[in-house]
Design brief:
Layout (H helix, E strand, L loop, with lengths): L2 E7 L7 H9 L4 E6 L9 H9 L5 E4 L9 H13 L3 E4 L6 E2 L4 H34 L12 H12 L4 H8 L3 H17 L10
Parallel strand pairs: 1-2, 1-3, 3-4
Antiparallel strand pairs: 4-5
Helix pairs in contact: 3-4, 5-6, 6-7
């Protein structure tokens, strides 16, 4: 069983020496340090190396939880992952962050974290679903406004009818080729969806 430390500084100008000293004083035999990397990123060079180094029964020591996780969701994910791997997580400045999965309390905390993570995902999905349903009810659709305005779409349709390629039309209109293609596809679908008018109709 090994005690491993992880330190992180947000900019390359900052000196992580104080963090390293604290971690070694706490018993860390090896310390991994990330320089100038945000804690909101799950993929950090030395953090990834640290995770590869850790084995079941090891202890990971950090100065504070914000050194390894910049968001609540990431913190829950990391704590849960370490717990499942049998790695103890200990913070030097936050007494409540001392999670030992070899104890019943540690296992319970990891279980609670997993439930909270699932609940958070489910809540985000439900809120998104409700938001989209409300937008549709108000006649709005999600996503960014299309660069293909009605005027551009009409111009694209005319150029396409004249035999111009999608690439040429996109260059003339100053938009992407895919934007032109999607807009004309929607126009075609809309035209085909309209019911045919009966001969002799006065409408």
């Amino acid at each position: 069983m090994t005690t491993v430390g992880y330190a992180r500084v947000s900019t390359r100008e900052q000196d992580p020496a104080a963090q390293e000293a604290e971690l070694r004083a706490a018993g860390a035999e090896r310390v991994f340090v990330d320089h100038g990397v945000s804690a909101t990123l799950a993929d950090r060079p030395q953090w990834s190396a640290c995770l590869d180094w850790l084995r079941s029964g090891d202890t990971l020591v950090i100065r504070a939880l914000d050194r390894v996780a910049g968001t609540e969701a990431l913190a829950i994910e990391i704590i849960g992952d370490l717990g499942r791997r049998g790695v103890r997580l200990k913070s030097l400045t936050e007494p409540f962050v001392d999670i030992d999965t070899s104890t019943p309390m540690g296992e319970a905390i990891v279980g609670i974290m997993a439930v909270l993570a699932q609940l958070r995902v489910a809540t985000i999905r439900e809120n998104t679903r409700r938001g989209l349903a409300h937008a549709r009810a108000q006649g709005r659709v999600g996503g960014r406004p299309s660069v293909m305005t009605p005027e551009r779409t009409a111009a694209a349709a005319k150029m396409r009818a004249d035999g111009h390629t999608f690439d040429h039309i996109a260059k003339v209109l100053g938009v992407g080729r895919s934007s032109v293609s999607r807009a004309l596809d929607r126009t075609t679908e809309s035209t085909e969806a309209k019911p045919a008018r009966h001969l002799g109709s006065t409408r």
